Amino acid sequence: MRHSRSIITASIIIAIAVFVVAAVSSFISGSSDHYDRPSSPAEVIEKMTEAVEATMDSSVPETTTESSEQLSEAAQQEAEALESRTQEEVVDNASEAVESAIESAQETSQSVTDRANEAIAAAENAAAEGRAEAEARLQEVEKEAGITEESAEVAAPATVESKNHTVTAQGLIYEPLVVTIAPGDSVSWTNMSTHNTESLEGLIPEGAEMWISAMSENYSRTFTEEGIYIYKCTPHFGAGMGGAIIVGNPVNLDQIKSFDAKGATRRLVNRAIQAAEAM
Hints:
Distance between the termini: 136 Å
CATH topology of the domain at 164-277: Immunoglobulin-like
CATH superfamily of the domain at 164-277: Cupredoxins -  blue copper proteins
Oligomer: single chain
Radius of gyration: 67 Å
Shape: rod-shaped
Structural class: alpha/beta
């Protein structure tokens, strides 16, 4: 449209210039019989107007509906192309911004990681130096105190071996009648052809386990709880056959003393109390 208007304007100016030159030349010379020279300025103006209109009519092309649609379609395509270029520019700018942000984040993360690794390495070095310094100082102190590696060794505690104590049935008595042992030791009853061994209720340490062995069989038992244990031979207790075992510290001595014992039981209790008090 702008190009067409420029052509029209230029054509009008040229037409006017040509007409003016021709009219003036004819008017001045007055020698042409074939040219209708205007008789007045009004006729000159009228002729110029007619020439301009003719020039405009011949220069301006007719605009049809089809050409208008083509121009509209071209304008729309140009607008779409411009919009497409604008969107591409926006996408390109956004992509560049995202890539820049990612690169910046990666650089920041790497920087943080590097600083953390440097801090860890510094801490490990400081710890190693501290240990070395402490060990050196300890060696100096030991040297000043005259401590050597051999003297610093602590002897392992001696292993305490449990012992087995034997009680033999001789006739209607147990020999020995009272046995003193350490916690963890064991007592074995032998020669038990017609005998057994049975603990007396109320005359053993509180919480300790009662026992009774089979008749005519040798028997062995380990004692771990401290205190006084009084036992009997079940079939011959009427004849006073029984005995006592003191394990470690006689912690239940008062219990034994206060027990209401009679007969053979009293005789065993008295012998156990005498042995415990003599320890």
